[in-house]
Amino acid sequence: TMLLDVDTGEWEVKTTHPAPGASTSGAAGCYDSLRNRIWYKPASDGRPSWLNLDTWSWTAQSGWAYDSSWTYKRLVYLPEHDLILQADANKSGGFCLWSPTTGIIYQPGVSGSPPNGLVLSGISGCDWDGERLLVWHNSSDTNVIGTLTPGANPISDPWTWGQVSFSGATPTACISNGTYGRFAYSRRLKGCVLQNLVGDKPFFFALW
Questions:
Q1: Letter string b/e over residues 71-93, b meaning 16 or more CB atoms within 10 A of that residue's CB
Q2: Per residue in 154-201, pLDDT tens?
Q3: Do residues 179 and 189 lie in contact, with contact meaning Cβ atoms separated by under 8 Å?
């Protein structure tokens, strides 16, 4: 685990994961603002572990649910529900939820279909805006952001697909090897930023 000093541009090695051989290709992580920790989930040995940012120490959750199938993953923490969403092509509807308290995995499923040309999986760009998941990984209709809104009970009621369309500059199509973190939502700016291709200018989509 490395820390970047934004003033000097220098990296500092802080600690080492206790299982460095556990499938780092396709793995995912996210920041848990409630606990001030980073959650990490490998692509194959799917038991999560977490990094305490106060002590820079790792804890492996060896007794939690095990995901045995290899696939690219992406993690997003949902502070309003204290859940972690795992975008994963091997899950029903392209995602599952798990509790950072108990490790239990939930698969509420989806209602409806994603916008034309959009895929939700571990290679997608996705982020949480406080009420819904925003998704962009579009091969067509690139000026559309998919929305996945939880039901009244997010762990048991199906999540519903919708979309937000916008005008102005039209992004290029997604690249086949993934969007990942190059799509993100800013709560301060109330909009999404997309850096799709190397050499492209970034796109910003205001959602207010």
A1: bbbbbbbbeeeebbbbbbbbbeb
A2: 999 999 999 998 888 889 999 988 999 999 999 999 999 999 888 888
A3: no
